[in-house]
Design brief:
The chain has 110 residues and is α+β, with helices and mostly antiparallel strands. It is 20% helix and 17% strand.
């Protein structure tokens, strides 16, 4: 008796990986593609720098970290700093107290 013939399937074509962005829009000056991320995996540090307004951010990295992760951390840190500044800000002088208007001194009742 003969062997059954195996159906020959061709392997599925490999998906092309879409490259992630490495330049981003600055949160402070709003220039597009002005923020770059430099990652030094050996040192375990990433630096984010805006070429226009010179805004900087530094973070720790590991072998899985990508530039978009550093950018996201920067956004979160900026939001947290803004919230903290808003909470620590003293309230404006309140005008809840009534101010008495001084009576005029011109009246002569003698």
């Amino acid at each position: 008796m003969g062997k059954r013939k195996k159906s020959s399937r061709k392997p599925a074509p490999a998906r092309q990986k879409v490259p992630l962005d490495t330049t981003f829009t600055c949160l402070f000056c709003h220039h597009e593609k002005s923020v770059t991320v430099r990652m030094d995996r050996k040192e375990g540090v990433a630096q984010l720098v805006c070429r226009v307004c010179d805004q900087r951010y530094q973070s720790k990295v590991n072998h899985l970290t990508e530039p978009i992760d550093i950018y996201s951390e920067w956004i979160d840190a900026a939001d947290a700093a803004e919230r903290e500044a808003h909470v620590n800000r003293r309230p404006a002088a309140s005008s809840s107290r009534q101010v008495r208007v001084a009576a005029s001194v011109d009246s002569d009742d003698d």
